[in-house]
Design brief:
By secondary structure, the protein is of the alpha+beta class. Helix content is 59%, strand content 16%. The protein contains ten helices and six strands.
Amino acid sequence: MTEAIDQIFGDNFSVIMLRIVIALFLSGLIGFEREMKNHSAGFRTHILVGVGACLMMLLSLFGFESFINSSGNIRFDPTRIPSYVISGIGFLGAGTIMVNGMTIRGLTTAASIWTVAGLGLVVGAGMYAVAVFTTIVILLSLVFLNNFEKLFRKGIYSNLIEIVALPDLKINNIISVFEKFELTIKKVEIERVDKDTRNIFIKIEQNASLDRVALFEEISKIDQIKNIIERN
């Protein structure tokens, strides 16, 4: 069967087809996990990256055989194209990283995209066992370590507070509330959303004895405050 396919479509076509399907399946598994958690880069993005990287690796391995066979003077470097894939995939990862004040989201998804590109290259090189094992490790890390992190952080409060306020709010009024509760402010950042709203990010030093409900009630008494959010 494979010999017939190779005769119709050319040498190594059955191998190329198998490797692309495996890359699609493995990268799709990781993308499905990201999709289930509603991340910016999900199922289709991961499949495209994994299959695309596999295709580049296959091009590097099989795309220049006719030139090599026609001349004994041509030197062959199969790692040249994959090296550009690894360095160039960063623009996709950067597109999934979102910075909102002092909160950064999307780093794990960016890392998974970069890893899926590596998976595609590995499958393209024919290292199936390594690719399957790596996929299992990645999935276990994304699923179980995320749950472990939630369990570990359970009961630990965030030290980042976001306050949505009107533009005429005086920062000193908020600072005085934190000073009243004897809290140490490590960083203050102000972000203008529109002409009627601005976000104020206040990072405080951890304080286990802090009555957070009382703190938020005191802050909410300020007329210009619209909302208070505790960030993770």
